[in-house]
Amino acid sequence: MLVQAASSYWQAAAAPRPSIYPCLSHAHHSHSLVSCTSPASFLVVSPLLIRASQLALWLLVARSTYPPYHSRPQRALTMAVAAARLLLRVVVLALLAAAQQVVGKSAVLSLRELDGRRRSAATTDTRSSRYYVDAMLAETLGEHKKAGAATSVLELKRHSLTAIPEDPVARDRYLRRLLAADESRANSFQPRRNKDRASASTQSASAEVPLTSGIRLQTLNYVTTISLGGSSGSPAANLTVIVDTGSDLTWVQCKPCSACYAQRDPLFDPAGSATYAAVRCNASACADSLRAATGTPGSCGSTGAGSEKCYYALAYGDGSFSRGVLATDTVALGGASLGGFVFGCGLSNRGLFGGTAGLMGLGRTELSLVSQTASRYGGVFSYCLPAATSGDASGSLSLGGGDDAASSYRNTTPVAYTRMIADPAQPPFYFLNVTGAAVGGTALAAQGLGASNVLIDSGTVITRLAPSVYRAVRAEFMRQFGAAGYPAAPGFSILDTCYDLTGHDEVKVPLLTLRLEGGADVTVDAAGMLFVVRKDGSQVCLAMASLSYEDETPIIGNYQQKNKRVVYDTLGSRLGFADEDCNYV
User: Can you cite a GO biological process for this protein (predicted)?
Assistant: First the structure.
């Protein structure tokens, strides 16, 4: 009887499964970013046939070779239990194969979690069950598989938006102000135009600090904490600063401040630091280095004691500025300290810096934190931006490491590198080349694809695409996402593609994949695809915007870098990307 059952089972396992590999009859297009579902499905179906064959063969052999001291009922029961276990594994594989489509094609986005509510017990149970299924899949195939390789449920552990006003009118005004500032920053990277244009090897040392959303400090950027100064009589000052790869000079607000905005931390007091010193006017940092970092050389002024200090003036594209004394002091990050660190001691500061104490410059010129620590950390840094915005979840900012510290990253895919491009006209910035794009697995064709010098910036929030590329992304996103019948909602600020998702806790979101020079593919996390304007889901927008002209500089903003390990190897002139769950607790 068991042999007959095994034979029937093998025949059933070998029968065609059109729901599992519906694309076997279609040609495979090697030039597409994402192929048809047949290769991935066939790789899963093959183990099914192998397991089924093994089961049938095992049952035939076991009947004749089982030890004679086992009774017939014992042998039958033991073989039945073993067969049931193998059958369960086959069923699990079949279910996963049926569910998995193209890798990086789409993801299920939980709007409830994106809006900041904690996971329910049911969600936790579901996640535990998924881990059990993943473990069984790994055991059956003889190797570990990434959970949800083709589709995944976005589970933001803590994504609280409590810092954003609850009142709809106040929330609207608040978000519009932040996005308007982001637009001004993005515009500052573009070349100036006439008014009538409309008609036309690394080291092993490393340090790591937590990196969190700045939403609680009234900014959409990401922040970390540094320690500055200190002496035997007083501890160093802990200061929360914005992390910005598009700036070079690190600065903080200082006493005595003539015009400072409100910040959460106490103002840094130079008088309380035994290692603080003002940079002199004749120092090289006050001339060429400061000019490269800020666009303006330092100016000199005489104090009552006759000493000449170097004064800096730094202006940003959104109208923000910081002015003060260029100084040196000891800075500490993640337990590692650096003496003689050059920074700006801001005495007059204004702008949309929220409640932070200032800004950390991670650009490419001599005064950036990266360059000043290059002798120790080899000019390498990386970050992992968390999708969650609650205060108890954070990503990380790492200095140093490179390939030697790859094991210290928590990435779930290998780091894929592309060439880092320098623009002499814009020395502080990091550029790369994008050669292709796909939405939900559908490759796009657009005039702007293949253009060089795409800026990657942690200080810009929303990604800006060339008009032709944005139109292609938008059209394909609307085709796939709109197929579910979600009603359209009015646009918001710079975001023009919005939906009313009222009553939907989870939605399936087609993901944007960018192909970089050298073949590396970067797929935007589901949390980086949609921007929730209204907490009730009545206005949720595609989190990308269009540039005004084709020849302007595209920008990959921090919103689309969530849950990615982004590695900057300045000496090796390369940028690396890997998937990583950045919501550390």
Answer: proteolysis
